[in-house]
Specification:
By secondary structure, the protein is an alpha/beta fold. It contains nine helices and four strands, in the order βααααβααβααβα. It has a four-stranded parallel sheet with strand order 2-1-3-4, sandwiched between helices. The longest helix is centred in the last third of the chain and has 24 residues.
Length: 243
Amino acid sequence: MISSRWSGRSSDAAALTAPEPGVRPLVIELVGPAGAGKSTLARQLGDRLGAPGAPLSLWGLPLPRLAAHAARLLPTFWGFVRDGQQPLWAEQTQLVRLETLSELVERRRAAGRSVVLDEGPVFALSWMEVFYPRREGPRRAAWRRRVLARWARLLDLIVLVDAPDPVLTYRLRTRTKAHPLKHSPDAVIHAFTARFRTAFNHVGAELRAASGPRLVTLYTGDEPSGRTTERLVAAVERSIDVE
C-alpha cells in the first residue's frame, strides 16, 4: 500500500495522484546528466502529482528572494574567507540559489502542495563537487552539514535520470538547448558526464545517510515519452510503498 503520508490507497488500484487533505505532499527531485530527458519527465510527473506547470528549479528564482538570501549569507561567505578560501562568484550564486529554493519548497509543502524539482539541491551540491572539488575548511563543512540536514528533511525521493553515453551525446548535440560541451569530442563529454554521475551518487548517499530520501535510477531510451513517464510513476509508487 502507498504510504499513508501520500494517498493511503493501493498502488495497484489507483495511479499516483494529488495528495488528499491532511496528508503530507511529496517533494521529489529529478537529476541527471545533460540529455537524459529529466526536464520533460519533471513536467509530466508534476502534472500527475497535482503540481502542474514548470517544476521548481535552481534557475529562474524570484530576484527579491535571491537578494534577501544573498544578504543573509554574507556572514557565511565571510566565514569561508576566514577559512582561507574566498568564495568565487559562481559558487556564491549557487549557494544563494540553494537557500532560496529551500524556502520556496518549504512554503509549497506547508501549503499542502507537492513539489517536483528539476535540478535542485542534489544538482547544486554535485555541481560544486565537480567544479570546486577542493573547497574545504571547517566553516564550509559546517555549512554543508546544515544544508544536507535541511534537504534530508525536505526531500522524499531523488530520481536519477540517465541514459547510455552515446544516447546522451547524440541528444546533447541535436537538441536546440545550448550546452558548453555541445561541440566537444565524445571523450570529453563522456568524462564530464562521468564526473557528474559520481557526484550525484555521492550527494544522494550523503542525504540518505542523514535519514533523507531514497534514490532510484531511471534509464531513458528511444521509447515513447509516455511510456517513460509511466515507468517513472511506477518507480515513484514503489519507492513510496517500501517506506
